[in-house]
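REVIEWER CHECKLIST
Item 1: Sequence provided? yes
Item 2: Single chain? yes
Item 3: Sequence as submitted:
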Amino acid sequence: MTARDSLTKNQLCVLERLEGAVGPLSAYTLLDQLRDDGFRAPLQVYRALDTLMKGGFVHRLESLNAFVACAEPHDHSHRMTAFAICDVCGQVSEFSDHDVGQQLDEWVGSTGFAAKRAVIEFRGTCGKCRAEAA
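Item 4: Structure as written out by the authors:
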C-alpha cells in the first residue's frame, strides 16, 4: 500500500487535477474545476490541499497563492524546496537539494533563528520562452 492509496476521494481529485494542470492552480480555480466532482465549498478544497501538502504531494507557491503537484518523489525532511516560475508561460520547475538545504539551515541557524521550512521562488523567463522571444 502506497501513501497515495490512503488519500480520500476529495484529496485524490485535487491531486489528480493538479497533476494534470499545465501550471499552478489557486484553490478557487480548483473549486471551479471540481464542481462536477461534488465540490461545493472552498473548505473542501483547502482541507484536501492541507493534507496533500503535509504528505508531500503538493506545494504552495507563496508568491502566486497557488498550488502545484510535487514534481518528483524526494525527501521532504530537509524542509527546503525551490521553484523557478516562468512569468511568460507559467511553467514551474521544482528543485530540492539536501546539501543546499543544509547550508541554508546552517546559515540561518548561525543567527540563532530556528527555521521550520524554506520555500525559495525564482521568477523570470524559462528557456523555452526565452528561445521563442529571440
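Item 5: Key structural point noted by reviewer: The chain has five helices and five strands.
Item 6: Recommendation: ____
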